[in-house]
Amino acid sequence: MGAESLPRNTSYSRQWVLGIVAIAMAILISGGIVGSSQAQDVATPIVDATPDVVANVCDSTAPGVGAEPWVRTELYFGTTLPDGSAITADQWADFLDEEITPRFPAGLTVLEGYGQFLNSEGVIAEEASIVLILFYPGDAIDDSSAGIEEIRDAYETQFEQESVLRVDEEPVCVSF
Questions:
Q1: Are the CB atoms for 56 and 165 separated by under 8 Å?
Q2: How far apart are CA 176 and CA 120, in angstroms?
Q3: pLDDT digits over 112-148, tens only?
Q4: How many Cβ atoms sit within 10 Å of the Cβ of residue 92?
Q5: Model-level pTM?
Q6: Predicted local confidence at residue 16, as pLDDT
Q7: How far apart are CA 172 and CA 72, in angstroms?
Q8: Exposed e or buried b for every residue in 140-151, given b needs 16+ CB within 10 A?
Q9: How deeply is 73 buried, as exposed, middle or buried, from its count of CB atoms within 10 A (0-12, 13-18, 19+)?
Q10: Contact (Cβ atoms closer than 8 angstroms) between residue 167 and residue 66
Q11: Residue 71 and residue 37: Cα distance in Å, rounded?
């Protein structure tokens, strides 16, 4: 003969079971808290409660180099014109001299690149690109951002571009 299983009591409500589980958890947790606080009381070391304050966020990432927090902005300029031709080196140099340098005379970096994007017609456009990298102090964000938007607008208008990609990152640590 096989062993007969004992009948199960299925009359407990779900709420009743959850209540029992909640009480058991509370007892376990309170025991852990009491136990840990008693252990802390015995072994609590005396320490200086003065927090370490970093005056400059860059002191923790680039200590000893005199770095300051600045903002980094990158602009990505497509160079293909609507007729399929490309912006010439002379056209770019003129734009750089007339629109960008007057707004950021302290310095900038220009890189040549290659990019692709999904245009407004749903077609992947591939083209040579120009990447402009700008760094400016955090206290110049408003003026710098306005200048960057003027550059983007001028490029889009002058060269009939859909957009100029802008990427901002802050803070970056800069030292000279």
A1: no
A2: 42
A3: 999 998 988 999 999 999 999 999 998 999 999 999 9
A4: 19
A5: 0.67
A6: 42
A7: 7
A8: eeeebeebbeeb
A9: buried
A10: no
A11: 46
Per the DSSP assignment, residues forming a β-bridge with 132 are: 75, 110
- Residues in the chain, how many? 176
The residues spanned by each domain of the chain are 11-47, 58-174
Fold classified for 58-174: Alpha-Beta Plaits (3.30.70)
To the nearest 10°, the Cα dihedral for 17, 21, 27, 32? 180
Here the tokens at position 106 are 């302290």
Residue with tokens 């983007």: 152
Residue type, 38: Q
The residue with tokens 């600045």 is: 70
The pair of structure tokens assigned to 143 is: 């003026």
The tokens for 107 are 């310095």
